[in-house]
Amino acid sequence: MKKVNRKLFLIPILAIIGITLTWNTSNSQAQELENSPYIIGIIFDEQGQQIVDAEVSLISNVDSEPLSKTNTQPDGRYNLEVTDRIPDFLSIHIERPHFEKVTLELNQAQIQSLRSGETLSIEDTVLLRRINPAFWIASVIFVIVLVLIATGKLHNTLAAMLGMSLLFIISYIGGYINEDLFIFDFEGSLNYVDWNVIFLIMGMMIVIAIVEKTGIFQWLAFFAYRISGGRMWLLLTILMLITGVASAFLDNVTTMLLMTPISVQIALALGINPLALLMPEVMASNVIGVSTLVGTPTNILIGSYGDISFNDFLTNLTPGVILAFIGLLLYCGLIFRKDLAKAHAPSPLLLEKLAEHGEITQPVHLKKAGWVGLGMVILFVFGEKIHLLPAVTALIGATALLVWIKPNIEEMIEEVDWTTLVFFISLFIVVGAIQEAGLISFIATGISQMVGSSLILSMLAVIWLSAILSTIIANIPFTAAMLPVIGFLTATVPGANTKVLFYCLSVGSAMGGNGSLIGASANMVTAGIAEAAGFRISYGYFLKKGFPALLITVSLATIWLLIRFH
């Protein structure tokens, strides 16, 4: 009996010892994991832009299997955790498609630091671009898409979709055969789509569809004609001013979404080609929108990167913008004089019919839309203070109207021009391919090498190269690629610390958007709506009318910038 009692007495003692040993082992392992050393660093490209999704591996020379692996974040940083036993030889391998591979050998002092549990910081690493078959394929496909759009052989949307599909076919099938044919995968391509623009357009199309049912656009058409008194030069001036001033406070895409239906109504009432009004309006939108931070998508990018405020844009660019607008107004009056001369006063019957159609048919709905619209304008202007994207404002406004007015939701969704949205998405991906493969990077490198240390040469180069290149490369991705170059020049060129080169980029990229159909988002939106109304704006037509406007407006804005900053 005593032996049994002794055994029973030993059981809890052994249990306590076992629990203690288990706790100590677990605590030791947790402490060891907590004290695991890290290797941190940042990876840049040759323009000083952080590289995202570069694969960083820690490899022992003894064992080829990576001891640790990670990918760089959007800010180019990587964080390698070293949890295994640290061997005597270690190296860091960095690789990413379209860049040269880099191997960094760790010295004994660095290895000893890791063994001591200390975080090891690696000097900034620069990856060099390499020209491989993917570079040439992406560039050729981009040119093919531009040619198809320019010649009108295929619809703009179909041409962009063809280019996008070819990129995916080559990346997935060709990349499986040879890694040098890989451009990007589907997930990677979506990173180049400016979803803010896509959802902004979609939201505003819904808003416009609801507002249009109230008869406000027809009323504005009749009211604008009455104000002008049939004088076409005055009508053109009023419409360009309205469009331009609105673009200074709203995104120019939003402005053209609002103005295009109005202009078509006015033109049809006067018996003229609507393009004689639409072209001057969209060009005025691209010019005057430069004067504020929220006026163009490119200014939003520039303001964020260069830490330039709303008032900075207004103060430094408005005089040059006014000068450029005067030149644009005179040019449009001259170049469209024949079209405008065809205008005729509506017959009494037609005028009566126009007045009848110009009545507000849904005043209650219009009042509600007015309150929602006022709220949207306030959010567009002041939303930057809370980092509210324009797309969010557009979606909130569209949803508010749908809930408050309760129109036929299916009918409103059908009013969205999905063809234009698909074109935008496809084009963003095609342009993203030449960014991914390095074409835009090489262009930016050439600019930085060309300007040297001369401020005047730097200003002229940034303005005019941005303007010319924005006619063949959509200005939003081009501006994003150029920002690191401008940042580098601002820090190295004497006298550039006033951020003048950022303003030069703003003028060049936005006003340069007037040079071609694909130069600015507002151009493509206007073309899409015009085509839906039966009036097609071809690439060649836009180039013929828009490129001289580019030369005039950019020249006048350049004169102001040279006066202001030199």
Keywords:
Immunoglobulin-like; alpha/beta; 566 residues; elongated
Characterize this entry briefly.
The chain has 566 residues and is α/β, with parallel strands linked by helices. The chain is 67% helix and 7% strand.
Give your account of this protein's structure:
- With 566 residues, this protein is of the alpha/beta class.
- The protein has 3 domains: 34-126, Immunoglobulins (Immunoglobulin-like, Sandwich), CATH 2.60.40; 133-190, no CATH class; 195-565, no CATH class.
- Helix content is 67%, strand content 7%.
- The chain contains 24 helices and 8 strands.
- Helix 15 (363-382) packs antiparallel against helix 16 (390-405) and helix 22 (500-511) packs antiparallel against helix 24.
- The chain is elongated.
- The model is unreliable at 25-34 (pLDDT under 50).
Low-confidence stretches are 25-34
Q: What structural category do the secondary elements indicate?
A: alpha/beta
The value of Rg in angstroms is 30 Å
Structure summary, number of beta strands: 8
Strand content: 5-15%
What is the count of structural domains?
A: 3
Helix content: 55-70%
